[in-house]
Design goal:
- The protein folds into two domains: about 200 residues, Rossmann fold, CATH 3.40.50.300; about 140 residues, P-loop containing nucleotide triphosphate hydrolases (Rossmann fold, 3-Layer(aba) Sandwich), CATH 3.40.50.300.
- Helix content is about 35%, strand content about 15%.
- The chain has a seven-stranded parallel β-sheet, with helices on both faces.
- Strand 10, helix 12 and strand 11 form a beta-alpha-beta unit.
- Helix 3 crosses helix 4, helix 6 packs parallel to helix 8 and helix 14 crosses helix 15.
- The two termini are about 45 Å apart.
- Bound molecules: adenosine monophosphate (AMP).
- The site of adenosine monophosphate (AMP) has 15 residues, from helix 3.
Length: about 425
């Protein structure tokens, strides 16, 4: 199928062509005609599938079909994070570059006054995070009474981030009759309930099973002792020449600490999380995109929706508590058909988290042990119990007597080797 058969205007097709897209992605093939017909949509699609264009193109087409001189907000896209708001806003501007519509992005952490000034001039499309949007609605600096299309993008993440109450408040400001499009990577019960209350006989679109991961992502587990994760990460970055590495850390503090430790080791690293100011986040992302920063250490929420083409390497420094987050994390690589690799550094205490993830994926992720970093505790087995008749209570199996914190003895590992061989576990 080509973009010619989807019913898009020459202006939109020209914009698509200038982006270099040749064929519509699966979600685009399914969603574009259906949205053009005016259907409500409930789509299961992860980031990286081309879902933004799947709703932005038909929405722009709808606006174009019914163009009027009077500017009013006709489309609202709700997204979970500032970064995603800015990316989705940019997408609308670039797909709509041959059209006369104005897009405004509204998110917190930046001056509301500038946003109000822009809104006063009139906009057709608003892309917003729920909190800041509500501020505008409460201040009456935004009128959504003539809204025609509502998009909830990454709905599951908005729920995870606790936006459900804000979203329900926002709904009260919207007209009943409108087209509703809901995009979500996963469909837990709460999303289903939201969909039932919002959508009108929706068309269900599913491009990859919500629990499956992008086919092109090569996933691998490096079992390693917790205390040696950072050392292994440094080793891989340096020895395996990893570049543009997005590393996930469960906490903001962990992200800061890891980024500064990596920097001390001579690796250009930066942290990216919600405690950073908007300008720090924008700069960190820009430096990473421009390849000035080699490693970006991010928390789940901050990294959500980051769109970086050709991101080759994602590392889970620790596994997420919520198994679905694993899918979101590895969705950062292998975007739009590119190949990518997702490496998880997993220590024995994360065994349960790993089994939950594998149950969700319905497959086992291959293990590779990096020589010199052999774990003292096996991932698949319970932590070793003290041997009977052994006076050294609680000592790890393999008996690294006195090495402390399960650290293997140097003499055991081939530390002198330039590039270690990998063994399958
Ligand atoms: P998304 O899933 O919307 O975050 O899109 C992921 C990436 O795919 C973005 O960088 C888009 O620019 C790109 N993309 C979207 N549609 C296509 C397409 N039909 N062909 C190639 N790349 C695309």
């Amino acid at each position: 199928m080509s973009f010619n058969t989807l019913g898009l205007s020459p202006e939109l097709k020209q914009a698509i062509e200038s982006k270099g897209y040749t064929d519509p992605s699966e979600i685009q093939q399914q969603a574009i005609p259906s949205i053009l017909q005016g259907n409500d949509i409930m789509a299961g699609a992860q980031t990286g599938t081309g879902k933004t264009a799947a709703f932005a193109l038909p929405i722009l087409q709808r606006l174009q079909n019914d163009e009027s001189k009077r500017r009013r907000v006709r489309t609202l896209v709700l997204v979970p994070t500032r970064e995603l708001a800015s990316q989705v806003g940019d997408s609308f501007r670039s797909y709509g570059k041959n059209l006369r519509f104005r897009t405004s992005t509204l998110y917190g952490g930046v001056s509301i006054k500038t946003q109000i000034d822009k809104l006063k001039k009139g906009v057709d499309i608003v892309v917003a995070t729920p909190g800041r949007l509500l501020d505008h609605l409460d201040k009456r600096t935004l009128d959504l009474s003539e809204l025609e299309v509502l998009v909830l993008d990454e709905a599951d993440r908005m729920l995870d981030m606790g936006f459900i109450r804000d979203i329900k408040k926002i709904f009260k400001y919207l007209p009943k009759k409108k087209q509703n499009l809901l995009f979500s990577a996963t469909f837990p019960k709460e999303i289903q309930a939201l969909a039932d209350s919002l959508l009108n006989s929706p068309k269900r679109i599913q491009v990859a099973s919500s629990n499956s991961t992008a086919d092109k992502v090569v996933q691998v587990i490096y079992p390693v002792d917790k205390s040696r994760k950072r050392e292994l990460l440094t080793y891989c970055i340096k020895e395996e020449g990893w570049f543009q590495v997005l590393v996930f850390s469960r906490t903001k503090h962990g992200a800061n600490k890891l980024a500064s430790q990596l920097s001390k080791e001579g690796i250009n690293a930066d942290a990216f999380h919600g405690n950073k100011s908007q300008s720090q986040r924008t700069r960190a992302l820009k430096d990473f995109k421009d390849s000035k920063t080699q490693v970006l250490v991010a928390t789940d929420i901050a990294a959500r929706g980051i769109d970086i083409n050709l991101l080759p390497q994602v590392v889970n420094f620790d596994l997420p508590y919520v198994p679905e987050d694993y899918i979101h994390r590895i969705g950062r690589t292998a975007r739009a058909g590119q190949e990518g690799k997702a490496v998880s550094l997993v220590s024995a205490d994360e065994h349960k988290l790993l089994s939950d993830i594998e149950r969700l994926l319905k497959k086992e992720i291959p293990r590779e042990i990096i020589q010199g970093f052999e774990p003292t505790q096996n991932l698949r087995s319970e932590p070793p119990k003290p041997k009977p008749n052994n006076r050294g209570k609680g000592r790890p199996q393999g008996g690294f007597r006195g090495a402390g914190k399960g650290k293997p003895s140097r003499s055991k590992g081939p530390w002198h080797k330039k590039r270690p061989k990998k063994n399958s576990n």
